[in-house]
Design a protein that fits this description.
Enzyme class: lyase
Strand order of the largest sheet: 2-1-8-9-10
CATH topology of the largest domain: Rossmann fold
Number of helices: 11
Structural class: alpha/beta
Pfam family, one: HEM4
Helix content: 25-40%
Radius of gyration: 19 Å
GO cellular component, one term: cytosol
Number of domains: 2
InterPro entries: 4pyrrol_syn_uPrphyn_synt_sf, 4pyrrol_synth_uPrphyn_synth, UROS/Hem4
CATH architecture of the largest domain: 3-Layer(aba) Sandwich
GO molecular function, one term: uroporphyrinogen-III synthase activity
Order of helices and strands: HEHEEHEHEHHEHEHEHEHEH
Strand content: 15-25%
Largest sheet: 5 strands, parallel
Distance between the termini: 13 Å
CATH class of the largest domain: Alpha Beta
Shape: elongated
Number of strands: 10
Length: 257
């Protein structure tokens, strides 16, 4: 790989509040980021979610594992504030970005944001609640493609979730066109592909297969263990894994290659 190619990094993630943080930090370290949005989302069941949000006394707390779930709660509240009765409950989230977003949009403090993924969050919750009596379920707004890791682990630890499916994940409308353009014959191949989610990987893989695009010249970096597994399931080798979905972790995974 030439020096120039090595510097091209394709960011395959959905557009979100912190999307700009990645290119900014990558450029600072001399990489050339190319942002390719992978996923789109459509919201649903917000009326059901609204009813649940009006009854904090039925729950032990709220759990967030994606930025879309936060947006869904905000939209379900429809301009009203989240009831104060949620504040003293046991509320959790994955990722620093999410916890800041929850604080900003819902004025709610959450714990466990440093855990980085659902599996680690479940372990954190178990430790955090070690001496507490928790009998009520946690309200868990989630997407149609959620992994069952959190639910399985928490139920093993004796806690239950009330899952409300509040968004659908679909491939981004421009994904196919962008990938075909990126890997067209004669085009200079990027040095790295960064995959941020299992669903994003699966949608990309079907485009690679359909158009017989050769990505073997690229080093693949996975964000988190479930994304790594999805990439390997499709038969691709993972070069590095960033343990947490933060720009700093991603850059250190790239610098480590």
């Amino acid at each position: 790989l030439t020096q120039l190619m090595m510097k091209k990094v394709v960011i395959l993630k959905s557009e979100s509040d912190n999307s700009e943080a990645y290119p900014a930090l990558l450029r600072k370290h001399g990489f050339e980021p190319i942002f390719v949005p992978t996923l789109d989302f459509s919201f649903k069941n917000l009326d059901i979610l609204r009813d649940r949000l009006l009854s904090p006394y039925k729950y032990s707390g709220l759990i967030f594992t994606s930025p879309r779930a936060i947006t869904a709660v905000r939209d379900a509240l429809d301009g009203n504030r989240l009831k104060d009765d949620w504040k003293p409950l046991e509320n959790y989230s994955v990722g620093e970005t999410s916890s800041e977003l929850i604080q900003r949009t819902l004025e709610l403090d959450t714990k466990g944001q440093h855990s980085g993924n659902a599996s680690n969050l479940a372990d954190f919750i178990k430790t955090d609640l070690y001496n507490k009596t928790v009998t009520l379920p946690f309200l868990f707004p989630c997407g149609n493609l959620k992994q069952d890791v959190l639910q399985n682990k928490l139920s093993e630890y004796g806690y239950s979730l009330d899952c409300v499916e509040v968004y659908e994940t679909v491939p981004h409308r421009d994904l196919e066109r962008n990938l075909v353009e990126l890997f067209r014959e004669g085009a200079e191949q990027p040095g790295y592909l960064l995959f941020f989610s299992p669903s994003g990987m699966n949608y990309c893989a079907s485009v690679f297969e359909r158009h017989k695009l050769d990505i073997n010249g690229c080093r693949i970096v996975a964000i988190g263990p479930s994304t790594k597994k999805a990439i390997e399931n499709k038969g691709y080798a993972v070069h590095r894994t960033a343990e947490k979905p933060s720009p700093e972790y991603v850059v250190s995974a790239l610098l480590d290659t």
